[in-house]
Design brief:
Blueprint (H helix, E strand, L loop, with lengths): L2 E5 L2 E3 L5 E8 L8 E6 L5 E7 L6 E3 L7 E6 L4 E6 L8 E7 L11 E5 L2
Parallel strand pairs: 2-10
Antiparallel strand pairs: 1-3, 3-8, 4-5, 4-9, 5-6, 7-8, 9-10
Length: 116
């Protein structure tokens, strides 16, 4: 079955950086779009970014464009999210998901907290 395991979250100061990883198994990773979504405390799920199967097309929410970069390594079945210039409003539980727009199966999430 589909397994997605996120890692790399933590506590970071405003302006700092983090790199999230998502290890995928149980499906043909290189054949699928993948996405990142997040859920801030007390709010609904927010789509963050998509990447196509080959990694050549990437899409971002306006709130993160220019600061976050999605990438993937199909040889390692791993999805990444490089997050730079982090803001307090980026604080959330971050999930990777199979497919686009976060609509498919998701992992358990990794917590990102941006605070001084």
């Amino acid at each position: 079955q589909v397994q997605l395991v996120e890692s790399g979250g933590g506590l970071v100061q405003p302006g700092g950086s983090l790199r999230l990883s998502c290890a995928a198994s149980g499906f043909s990773f290189s054949s699928y779009y993948m996405s990142w979504v997040r859920q801030a405390p007390g709010k609904g799920l927010e789509w963050v970014s998509d990447i196509n199967s080959g990694g050549g097309s990437r899409y971002y929410a306006d709130s993160v464009r220019g600061r976050f970069t999605i990438s993937r390594d199909n040889a390692k079945n791993t999805l990444y999210l490089q997050m730079n210039s982090l803001k307090p409003e980026d604080t959330a539980l971050y999930y990777c998901a199979k497919g686009s727009r976060g609509l498919g199966p998701r992992g358990q999430g990794t917590q990102v907290t941006v605070s001084s």
